[in-house]
Amino acid sequence: MTDYLEYYKPFPIREGQTIDFHCDHGFVPANQQTWQRATCINSRYVPEPKCFKICDPSIRFDHGRINYRYYILEGNNITFVCDTGYSPANQRSIITCTKKGWSPAPECILPAVERTCKTISVSHGYFESQQQSFQINAKAKYNCHNGYSTSKGETQAETQCLTEGWSPEPECIKTCLKPPGGDFIFNTTKSVFFPGDKLHYECKEGFQITNNTIDDTVTCTEKGWEFTPSCVSVVCKTPVLENGTINPREDIFQHNMVVRFNCNEGFTRVGSESAQCYHFGWSPQPPICKENVKPCPALPIISHGRVTGESKAVFQHGDLLEVHCEISFALYGSKIIECVDGEWAPLPSCVEEVRTCGSPPTIKNGFFVNAESSTYRHGDTMEYRCQQQSIIIGTNPAKCLHGQWEIPSCVGKLEAEPSEMNFRPVLEYISIYY
């Protein structure tokens, strides 16, 4: 016997004697009372001491209930009901009380029905198909109205009908399309922009924004671009030159046009002889015409540099000199300076160059002469010579400039054109000169 407790145990007992027993928690005797008595008859107990499981009908389960208020004894059946729209699992609403509890466990589920997706309204867009419903896994295309697109910047996209609905959910959000080309260019490959995105644009050559700049940034807003990018033609007003004339004479000058300046007789030009029209105005600034100009009494002093040219006690307006820097110093600015109304301009500077060159490189059909060091400073030179039947082309002697050798080459005499032989260009008025 299991699932019971005896009240007392006077074992063995004689024929006709009785015992009282009760069951463990959750079980009851056949009389469904707390205690039951059994009598020893013909060497066995009558009734047989036995405990039965009792099942609680008040258990909770989703979407259903048991409409019974009393405990159910083991072996008995009961029926449960499901909420509206739900059905018993496995189509069975009868459950049985067993020693382990309800079997099967009560369960209510949604009936297995095939779902479809209805055509939905797409804000600022529309479905291409005229169908009103779509089967599971079916795909559909939709389009966005002008000025709207998906989060990926597409004006047409595809969505799929799944059991939980359309995925991804159709969307059309406000966007800004890249403005059509004009007198400006965009430094981007993007074609669609979202609110908050910024677009940088730059005017084409010869055009400017109205505030005399050539680039700007425009922002995409919920209502579109905050303003329409635009550029206007670059124009310059006629420069003023007192006591002189300009050529050509126009009311308005277009971008890149050049004017030349001439002073009247008895006046001397101080400044550039010409100027060019840019988006920021004339460059260089127009000169002035002076009746009396000052001479330059002395040579300018340039740190770590020297000035060469004709030796004079006094230099007149317009005289030119040449500037050279010491070894290990590089010249920044114009190599040529001019006496302008008592002052030398533009004055360059000699800046120390810490980069050095290694041993001179070898060249085909040639060799360098007397290399005595493995390190050379900026400005150091090295002479190259060519083998017989070859001539030297390019810079010779070679020069160490900013850590790199500027070297010549040796070519056969028949390969070299007369104009190439020993050709060394003369460069003047450059912004950086070595």
Give structural notes.
By secondary structure, the protein is mainly beta. The chain folds into six domains: 54 residues, Complement Module, domain 1 (Ribbon), CATH 2.10.70; 58 residues, Complement Module, domain 1; 48 residues, Complement Module, domain 1 (Ribbon), CATH 2.10.70.10; 56 residues, Ribbon (Complement Module, domain 1); 57 residues, Complement Module, domain 1 (Ribbon); 47 residues, Complement Module, domain 1 (Ribbon). Helix content is 0%, strand content 41%. The protein has a four-stranded antiparallel sheet with strand order 1-2-4-5, with no helix packed on it. Strand 42 and strand 43 form a beta hairpin. The N terminus and C terminus are likely disordered. This is Complement factor H-like isoform X1. GO terms for molecular function: complement component C3b binding. It comes from Notechis scutatus (mainland tiger snake). Pfam families: Sushi (PF00084). Keywords: Disulfide bond, Signal, Sushi.
